């Protein structure tokens, strides 16, 4: 997919499941569970042990059926390794301009983390495709997104932190182009118990919440 197609797909689906688990196999099974629910996006964070291998396994298993992202990317070197493993988009928890530069060089989608208005604008001017607002829930949630969109209507934002079934729709209504959800969707306890059906059902509920919110906008 082209960079433009990847970004458009993220906005169309409206939700990125951030998979932050304790093993490569758990991450792969979680990606499979959200895919079965009709959610063709998965972000595997670099905090997963063997995360690069997890990216490779999901890429090999699903090909272009799943749009694969790398999360918690802290530096350009990690971004490049994830790229070679099959990642199509890259999410960072903080603002590091050299990481944005590397990802842009290879025409991939980059969603750098930012929080303050200065960081948000700096990320956008550096070439961010979407700015990840993190940790959004700690500073006002949907109200904070609405406040940022006032001076920055041109900047696309994806909140993370504080996104759950009750707030996902409110974030979209506040101006977010999509939301990112971690443990509220893919939780370690369900995985440990082998209850991937719980994650699958939960993913369907999130998709329904996104569709409902958009129908009301």
What does this structure look like?
- The protein has helices spanning 3-13, 24-36, 51-62, 76-85, 97-105, 117-125, 142-149, 168-174, 188-192, 196-216, and strands spanning 15-19, 41-45, 67-71, 89-91, 109-111, 113-114, 131-133, 157-159, 179-181.
- With 217 residues, the protein is an alpha/beta fold.
- It has a six-stranded parallel beta sheet, with helices on both faces.
- Strand 4 (89-91), helix 5 (97-105) and strand 5 (109-111) form a beta-alpha-beta unit.
- Helix 2 (24-36) packs parallel to helix 3 (51-62), helix 2 crosses helix 10 (196-216) and helix 8 (168-174) packs parallel to helix 10 (196-216).
- It is globular and about 45 Å long.
- The chain starts with a helix and ends with a helix.
Output the keywords.
single chain; 217 residues; alpha/beta; three-stranded parallel β-sheet; 48% helix; globular
Task: Give the overall shape.
Answer: globular
Helix content: 40-55%
Give the terminus-to-terminus CA distance.
Answer: 29 Å
Low-confidence stretches: none
Sheet-strand content, in percent, reads: 5-15%
Spatial order of strands in the largest sheet: 5-4-3-2-1-9
- Please tell me the overall pLDDT: 97
- Can you write the helix and strand succession as a string? HEHEHEHEHEEHEHEHEHH
List the quaternary state of the chains.
single chain
Radius of gyration: 16 Å
- Main structural class: alpha/beta
Say how many strands there are: 9
> Largest sheet, if any?
6 strands, parallel
């Amino acid at each position: 997919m082209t960079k433009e197609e990847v970004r458009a797909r993220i906005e169309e689906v409206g939700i990125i499941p951030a998979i932050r688990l304790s093993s490569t196999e758990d991450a792969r099974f979680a990606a499979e569970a959200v895919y079965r629910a009709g959610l063709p996006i998965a972000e595997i964070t670099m905090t997963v042990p063997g995360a690069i291998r997890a990216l490779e396994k999901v890429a090999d298993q699903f090909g272009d059926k799943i749009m694969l992202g790398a999360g918690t990317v802290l530096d350009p070197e990690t971004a490049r390794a994830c790229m070679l493993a099959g990642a199509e988009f890259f999410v960072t928890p903080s603002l590091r301009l050299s990481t944005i530069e590397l990802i842009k060089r290879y025409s991939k989608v980059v969603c750098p983390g930012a929080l303050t208005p200065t960081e948000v604008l700096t990320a956008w001017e550096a070439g961010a495709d979407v700015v990840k607002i993190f940790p959004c829930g700690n500073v006002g949630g949907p109200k904070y997104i609405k406040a940022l969109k006032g001076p920055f209507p041109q900047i696309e934002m994806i909140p993370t932190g504080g996104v759950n079934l009750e707030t996902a729709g409110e974030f979209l209504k506040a101006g977010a182009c999509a939301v990112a959800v971690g443990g509220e969707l893919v939780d370690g306890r369900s995985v440990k118990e082998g209850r991937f059906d719980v994650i699958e059902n939960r993913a369907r509920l999130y998709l329904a919440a996104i569709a409902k919110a958009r129908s009301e906008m």
